[in-house]
Amino acid sequence: MIQRRRILQAFAPVPAMLMDGRAFAQSTPIRILVGAPAGGSTDTLARTLSIEMGRLLGRTVIVENRPGAGGNIAADAVAKAAPDGNTLLMSFTSHAINASLYPSLPFDPVKDFTPLTCVATSPSVLVAHPSLPAKDVRELIALAKAKPGKLNFAIGAVGSSLHLAGDAFKMQSGAYIVNIPYRGTAPALQDVLAGQVDLMFAAVGNAQAQIRAGKLKALGVTSAKRLPAFPDVPAIAEVLPGYESSAWFGLFGPGQMNPELAKRLSDAARQAIATPDVKKRLELEGAVPVGNSPDEFARFVQAEIPRWAKVVKFAGAKPE
């Protein structure tokens, strides 16, 4: 009987009482704040994750959208929330970019948050209108250098990871390509499809249907290696060694969270990421599941901030 009880306890839901003595109250929903509008990739991934996390924790987990200021509104709310595990943040690459993009922030992107896990990364693809006379990245660089300022990039959002993917490309290649900003990815992509703009870095999930239909030409992917979805499309790193620019989505809590609480939430998120339903949803979004430990994610975020700062400085980007 004792052995049976121990086995049952080992597979029981995460306990409600934590090491710091405060209740992880089951009557209170866990809120995951998202600094992006409903329907986008960050929101979709948060909602998919919330269902499995709720099941694993034996709690209600809801998603609350607080878009604006590149994710800073939601991040500020979480930074100022009690570290009791009831308010979390599903953030994205801008969490690291904003540290240098904005002249000042009402929070510290490292000290005021507890990293729980990186949920997924999302490589992008460099696409062009089929009429562009370059079939790969090497030919594109040669064309841009032969005609400096004649080619252009459509930018869906100034300061976004896709915007800075283009500036990182220009920084490493030495090519001069003009940025044309848009208010949103959809109109930017539409103008590339129409041939009004030459090039764009687009999320794989947004562009793969048009690539397969021959309406867009894929020149290279931003991951370190080729993607299984496009095995014939080279990684840009094959021409520009060291080039890599993937968006990422991560789960944070407020700073100063109890380590045991942070571990329980991280473990639940990581188990959720590993489930078939969540993995399938991530793949539909063109994302690659990660699910690393809090320490690994913390080191990743700390490295991302100075990496993006170099690109922001090169681009001279300013928040909209």
Could you name the key traits of this structure?
320 residues, alpha/beta, D-Maltodextrin-Binding Protein, domain 2, ten-stranded mixed sheet, globular, disordered N terminus
Task: Describe the protein in words.
This protein has 320 residues and is α/β, with parallel strands linked by helices. It folds into 2 domains: 190 residues, D-Maltodextrin-Binding Protein, domain 2 (3-Layer(aba) Sandwich); 116 residues, D-Maltodextrin-Binding Protein, domain 2. It contains 11 helices and 10 strands. Strands 1, 2, 3, 4, 5, 6, 7, 8, 9 and 10 form a 10-stranded mixed beta sheet that branches. The N and C termini lie far apart (64 Å).
Short recap of the structure:
The protein has 320 residues and is α/β, with parallel strands linked by helices. 40% of the residues lie in helices and 19% in strands. Helix 2 (41-57) links the parallel strand 1 (30-34) and strand 2 (61-65).
